[in-house]
Design goal:
It contains 15 helices and no strands. It is an all-alpha fold and 293 residues long. The protein has one domain. The longest helix is centred in the N-terminal third of the chain and has 25 residues. The protein is globular and about 40 Å long. Keywords: Cell membrane, Membrane, Transmembrane, Transmembrane helix. It is found in: Cell membrane. It comes from Kribbella caucasensis.
Length: 293
Amino acid sequence: MNHPRIAVLALLAVAAAWGSTFFLTKDLLTRMDVADYLALRFLIASVVLIMVHPPAMARLSRLDRGRGVALGITYGVAQLVQTEGLRHTSASVSGFVTGMYVVFTPLLAAVILRHKIGRWAWIAVTLATIGLGVLSLRGLSLGTGELLTLASAGLYALHIIGLGAWSTPSNAFGLSSLQMIVITAVCAIGAVPGGFAVPDNGGDWVRVVYMALIAGALALIVQTWAQAHLTPTRAAIAMTMEPVFASAFAVLFGSDSVTGRLLIGGALVVSAMYLVELAPRRKFEAEVQHLAQ
């Protein structure tokens, strides 16, 4: 069985799930505080993961538990920093700057894990970055919002590297459950200053539950499993399909229309994906080894 190829397809499904949330979230946040929404979303996901497979976390080793806490804190802080950055910049610029994790991932992996990043990986990263820029940018000034969002991109890159180094097929569910609990705690701390509120109508509850279960719990399980079979750079490039899917869903179900920018930017990101899959495999598989447990 070709586990790396299946893992890439799984990450594409995750990117599609994340992409489907943009137009839903944009509407929901007109009626709900950001921190309240994040805390509720991840709380629901945590409860469901624990109920589905209660022994999963108990079976984690002490080392895996420490790693799960570290990964959860990293992701939770990234969510809060990204959201705060979004208050000070446009959604399109935020999407581009957040997507810069595709650049930070190989850079940080090279520094932290001391592995050489191959030529094919850099070509794919460059294509994906240009594609993100074409999709998202309509001018870019470097202010508070952009700096905060750039920091969140670095944190997302660290999370991708950590999952790539520490996840295994056997610990994927337990590691996902523990991460989700920690992410909930981090987001809940962010919600404390303004008080906590929940949706006041059934439609908003349906949106929150969908994003908690499909784009939250299920997506994190799939990402954790997939990254047990992929290098961090290959995973990051696969996940840059998120804004492409977001644009497609906005066209299909929202008010957006097909534009030249959408077609060109999407084609560049998809080209990066194909390059990853068609390039000499050894160039990617040797990039970052999973750390011993």
